[in-house]
Design brief:
mainly alpha
Length: about 270
């Protein structure tokens, strides 16, 4: 069993290597940063247009909804920086047989496969999302509450862990399907659903079953909703406890599913 210090050193090495790769093509790095900034600007402009025509969207006023968007943007930035490219590339490792080289190394396979590359071009999204959240708190004159801030950060970490678990289970299917591009489209479905408050799905008759399914069966809607509501709306002890339980369960299930997938893998030499 490798010590935690060894894993931290490896993460530092991966981070330096990923940054060196990005700096080797600075123009591409800058273009990607510009595109992400433009995308956020469009998102904020669209948000402004919506609230010029209404004061509330499903019970959310402009500043609280802006905080929600910032939280989603920051969380997506973390997942895209540290995990997304690794998980989407897992199918190629299976197809080419390069997965053999990762399985032979004296380190936890899940850690190595899902953390080996960091896409630093998307890390500024985390900072931009944090900036949007800070601005929203300032605009609503949020009274500083250390307890709420700590609870938000803990639940935000739970949201990142839940998102990682969903992504890990989707990419694990590559072992059986080899090419799973269609299944990975579910990832974009999940991220799209995370972008909206849970109350939006209760407005229409057909939306209520969708909201129920993605809250209690596949708890995608908890990822951003629970941390945000805890910070800027109301404490919901039941949903907070449910999110913590769901996080632990998803981490356990996703790891078991990943290990089961690896046990079914047939190496390139077989």
């Amino acid at each position: 069993m490798a010590s935690p210090a060894r894993y931290l050193r490896l993460l530092g090495t991966f981070a330096r290597f990923g940054l060196a790769n990005e700096m080797a093509f600075r123009a591409n790095f800058l273009v990607k940063l510009t595109v992400e900034a433009i995308w956020l600007s469009i998102l904020l402009a669209f948000n402004g247009i919506l609230f010029r025509n209404t004061d509330y969207i499903a019970g959310w006023d402009q500043n609280r909804y802006l905080f929600f968007l910032g939280c989603h943007y920051a969380l997506s930035g973390i997942v895209e920086t540290f995990f997304l490219e690794n998980c989407t590339g897992f199918a190629e490792l299976v197809r080419t047989g390069d997965l053999d080289f990762y399985l032979l190394r004296p380190i936890d396979e899940q850690f190595l496969i899902t953390s080996r590359h960091m896409d630093w071009s998307t890390f500024p999204n985390v900072l931009q999302g944090a900036g949007v959240m800070v601005y929203a708190l300032w605009a609503m004159s949020w009274p500083f509450d250390l307890g709420l801030l700590v609870a938000f950060l803990a639940l935000f970490a739970c949201g990142c862990a839940m998102t990682y678990s969903f992504l890990l289970m989707l990419c694990s299917l590559s072992v059986w399907m080899v090419r799973n591009q269609s299944l990975m489209e579910m990832w974009w479905l999940f991220t799209s659903l995370m972008r909206y408050p849970r109350e939006v799905f209760g407005v229409t008759t057909w939306g209520s079953p969708v909201g129920f399914f993605f809250t209690f069966i596949v708890p995608v809607l908890l990822v951003v909703n629970v941390p945000t509501r805890t910070m800027v709306r109301t404490l919901e002890p039941g949903f907070i406890a449910g999110m913590v339980v769901a996080t632990v369960a998803l981490l356990f299930v996703s790891r078991a599913f990943f290990r089961r997938a690896l046990s079914s893998y047939r190496s390139a030499s077989s």
